[in-house]
Amino acid sequence: MADSGFHFLSAEYPPANGGVSDYTRLLARALAQQHGTVHVWAPRVSGPEVPDEGVVVHRVADFGPRCLEEISERLPEATGPRRLFLQYVPTAFGFRGMNVPLIRWLLRRPEPLWIQFHEVALGWKLWRKPHLHVVNAVEVWMAAALARRADRIFISIEGWRPRLGREGERAIWLPIPSNVPTDVPASVVSATRRELGGGPWVGHFGTYSPGITRDLRPALRMVAGGAPQASLLLVGRGATAFATSLGLGTRVRAEEDLSPEAVATRLAACDLLMQPFPDGISTRRTSAMAGLALGVPIVTSDGHLTDSVWRTSGAVSLAPVGRAEELGRLCLQLLQDPARREELGRRGKALYAERFSLERTRAVLQSTNNA
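-> structure tokens emitted (371 positions)
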């Protein structure tokens, strides 16, 4: 297989868990299929490597100065022209989010540089501790320096564009696709619903962080009180502990440590999903993308990072961030309106295929590569 010249730099890669880890693998596999061998540089982790045809993973200790020298020495082993593709999350690269050596190294490298901004900077908030103001200032400088240096800039959500200043005008919006299968046979969905029994089922998929459970917990309790026939299905790490905290007994089913295929099957069997986010739904939220791709209606949050497409497409049902009672109310309305649920699911699935799918990501990267 010919060498594509793509070299990903990512702070996480399977078997490491994480959204950027899954995304980098999806992208590396897609580019390998189109262009030839892709290289990934990522930190060492415990567990067996996940082999993919055409993807060569180079493990380093970290992205500190010594390892950057090691990467510089090993890069010439690759044949042909090279392109560095940085999967950027400032806090993920160590140095407490201020890995200035990495930025300086990238500024000196001769290769073309592509950057995907999964996040730009911590963000300035008055009530934060003073040292976090310093962290934000350094991260803003890092992002600006990278954006000026980059030959191509990609952003996972529209909200990152203004944070990159003038350079944000040339950024290409590249949403994060679902990291679980996007198609489940109807026969498998039917069998799963028989296994679950009862219903309708209101589901949630995520990791149950405090920012999300703040609204999720009261909203689910409201649904349980307003729809006695409904059951709750919680999927993802932390689901068991969160289910216990709800105090709803056997009306809640929690499932953790599922394979991506099993996650997709469980989500597809739900009648609707409740997916609140503390900053609003955006196109970096893979847990929402999973339900959208499967055609499951979604009730979610509208916040300061919510992309405009969510407000104009009619593909999800939106409640303002922090309004748990509105989340619950919308969910109860949908449980009583099968036709509306079907319409939401259809719109969501169509929007995903048109704007967010891996196939669209491939097309964008192909056109960018040819430009």
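The mean pLDDT is 94.
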